[in-house]
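User: Before I run my own analysis I want an independent prediction to cross-check against. Here's the chain; please return only the structure tokens and, at the end, one sentence I can use as a sanity check.
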Amino acid sequence: MSRSVPSASEAQATFAATLFDQWARRGLRDVVLSPGSRSTPLALAAATCDGLTVHVRLDERSAGFFALGRALATTQPVVVVVTSGTAAAELHACVAEADLAFVPLIIVTADRPPELHGVGAPQTIDQRHLYGDMVRRFDDVFAVDFHESPTWRVRANELWDASLGVRPGPVHLNSAFVEPLLADALELPALVESPERIVDMVVVTALDLRDLAVLCVIGRGVSSDTVAECRALNWVILGDATALGTLPYFDPLLRSPDFVSRVRPDVVVRLGGLPASKVLSEQLRAWSVRTVALEGAGFVADPDRLVSEFFVGLPTRDAASLKASETYMTTWRNASNEVGRWLESLDAASELSEPAVARVVVTASNDSGAALVVGSSMPVRDVEWWAPARTSATFANRGVNGIDGVVSTILGVASGSKALGFVGDLTMLHDVSGLVDGLGAAGGTCVLVVADNRGGGIFSFLPQATRVEPTRFEQLFATPRDHDLEVVADAFGYEAVSVATLDELRRAIDKGLAGEGLSVVVAKMPSREDNVRLHDAWNDEVARRVGCP
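Assistant: Structure tokens:
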């Protein structure tokens, strides 16, 4: 070290610089921070560390979800830096999402020193264990002690590795800093050897599925490579909106009693998360067949407790014991293809509808290669149920399934790259603060498509729509807002356009993807009541087409 007795300010500047130096050596590339005074040592350390892109967001909640988007896109941990007080509390929602969606985030909250707690100091709350059991690891630095500098890189490694563990997710470092907050970092501690990350992916060998009718249900965490291996084994693969290359249109197919009677599986294989379809969940419960889980893609969601057997690893096409019935797969594929041909015949129509918009958005993502980020409520369901199979990277906040922070997540995915977002009007308004910073200094291209049906469309499919008096239903559940979303986007300085036909929507998306920056496309939807009737009509047509001759 350059001095035998460094000041407290120099010690904490060196501590912060060591953290970012070590994380950069482990692969950190993105740091998202919100401005604040107490976090000065961290902000300066991040900004001066080679190889890091620093994204500055005014709103801490937006910052957290923006970081989540970057982590989804890069599959690497992203560091979030905020100051003390309510700034730290603003991250609670994104930590909850990262916890249940298994997204690696390193949350670093600056704090006041112990002597300022409990005495009425401003911007001071109890930040220790602020996020409870949602984080994989919590570390607390009451006061930076230079004598502990040999442990700083080790602590950085421990946080990094915990975020990428068997169950990836958020970690939290709470660090108290004293004034003066400005100082130059001294010589950093010596390097330590980074532990090798070993992932045990034992191939499933004890499972015998030869010539059985295998239905594979997958969700968050399952890669397109794994889907390809499953498909090569003749497994019928039903996936959520984020899954690539899975069999489309399964939800409307499972609404046909005749089709359901013909496709009862011998065994259900589960990987990763769950699709949004309640019809699928209800049918899996009704079939009550042998259900096995493969844990190679991470945590297997099983809220209905149907899984009775667990296996380590992932399937491979070379495993002869996993080769399932081709006849069963053909039955599903032929039905899905029949629905697909009918839907393609409707694509030439000009009328906007929520499922049709989902199809246009997915097709644009597939054709352009731009990543797709889908909002909660109806967009994620229409993509899962009515859109063609996804081939470009597709993301959604399906950990907690909330609408908060979705715009910021979309911007995080698009930052420095290209992405399409598909959300409802309430989702846009809920996270309108994400538009303050947009794509930020990293730039990129983002087209945000908003299905504007003036309210929460998903509630029109729920019992509240028919059992609650209409005026009260609008007040408490549909919650329409009169804001002109085109004007809202324009007020933040973004190019915005409203569209009334599918052709106008396609042209607006193409124009936005061909340019740079953020553009907003507002698709004016028919009424929410018309949307329910259209879904019913489409489901009835599917049942007619796949029924017995």
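Sanity check: Residues 198-202 have pLDDT under 50 and may be disordered.
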